[in-house]
Amino acid sequence: MASRLKDPKLAKRVRATLILLIPALLQAFPLIYLLCVSWKEGAEVIQYPPRLFPREINWVNYSEALSSAPLVRFLLNSALVATSITLSQLLTSILAAYALSRLEFKGQNVIMAIIVGTMMIPGEVTIIPNYFTLASWNWLNTYPALIVPFSVSGFGIFFLYQFFKTVPKELEEAAFLEGCSRMRFLFQFIVPLALPAISAFAIYSFVGAWNQYLWPLIVTQTTDMQTAQIGIGMFRSQNESMSWGVIMAATAMLISPTVFLFILTQKQFVRGITMSGIKG
């Protein structure tokens, strides 16, 4: 082992890994602390001097959290809303990105500039007009109110546009010569080629939709329509006297889907970002 570390390249990689571990641990510490507190008993949470890891893993906090609030309902609502938003954004982004990157028509550059410009508008600016529009349609406290305003993504169009532009023209011309239609070429050729970029955007869209707080807080009025992020706030406000271990257990359950999603798909996410051509 010592002889291997004398290799300059290996030693450089070891040093780089150790250096990167420091910010990684700092970034992961809140999540580690949350899990550790969720496994502690009530007295152990507030003991002094404090200790990070519990003496033994205790799952009582999780069962108590499930019996104290409709956490499963919150999770199902968030899953339905986030999945619907992701699918609608994927469909609209793929179609729009293909039209803007592969077709030639008057005003194409102007439309693309407007789409990019919408990315610079803070989401809070659109809350009031969207709220009054949905209220006039009697959509408040419904799933369409949580989904429809986010069914199109300017970032998604721009993101996929970057990749679609890299597909060779010769491939498209050869497919048309064989009698392939534009829609068939899009879904049988471009979409499979762009799958890493599409997967990366799908992850980004799902996590963003799952973590929404302000809009669901405004348009939902009953517990059965509230999402996971609203559920965390409601659980905390209604159970102020409850142990922090129970509160942390509820929080852990409500954020776990997005954490596991990113862990399982991080390679596709990084590959998609790299292939899209977007630079940081």
Could you walk me through the main structural features you see in this protein, from its secondary elements to its overall organization?
By secondary structure, the chain is mostly helical. Helices cover 73% and strands 0% of the residues. It contains 15 helices and no strands. It has helices at 2-5, 8-38, 42-45, 60-68, 71-102, 108-118, 127-136, 143-147, 154-164, 169-177, 182-193, 195-210, 214-219, 228-238, 244-276. Helix 4 (60-68) packs across helix 15 and helix 5 crosses helix 9.
Determine the N-to-C terminus distance.
38 Å
Integer average pLDDT = 84
Strand % is under 5%
- What is the 3D form? flat
Radius of gyration: 24 Å
The largest sheet, given as strand count, sense and whether it forms a barrel, is:
none
H/E element sequence: HHHHHHHHHHHHHHH
Task: Let me know the number of strands.
Answer: 0
How does the SSE layout of this entry go?
Elements: H1 2-5, H2 8-38, H3 42-45, H4 60-68, H5 71-102, H6 108-118, H7 127-136, H8 143-147, H9 154-164, H10 169-177, H11 182-193, H12 195-210, H13 214-219, H14 228-238, H15 244-276
Helix pairs in contact: 2-15, 4-15, 5-9, 5-12, 5-14, 6-9, 9-12, 12-15, 14-15
Brief description of this entry?
By secondary structure, the chain is mostly helical. The chain has helices spanning 2-5, 8-38, 42-45, 60-68, 71-102, 108-118, 127-136, 143-147, 154-164, 169-177, 182-193, 195-210, 214-219, 228-238, 244-276.
Protein traits:
15 helices, mainly alpha, flat, 280 residues
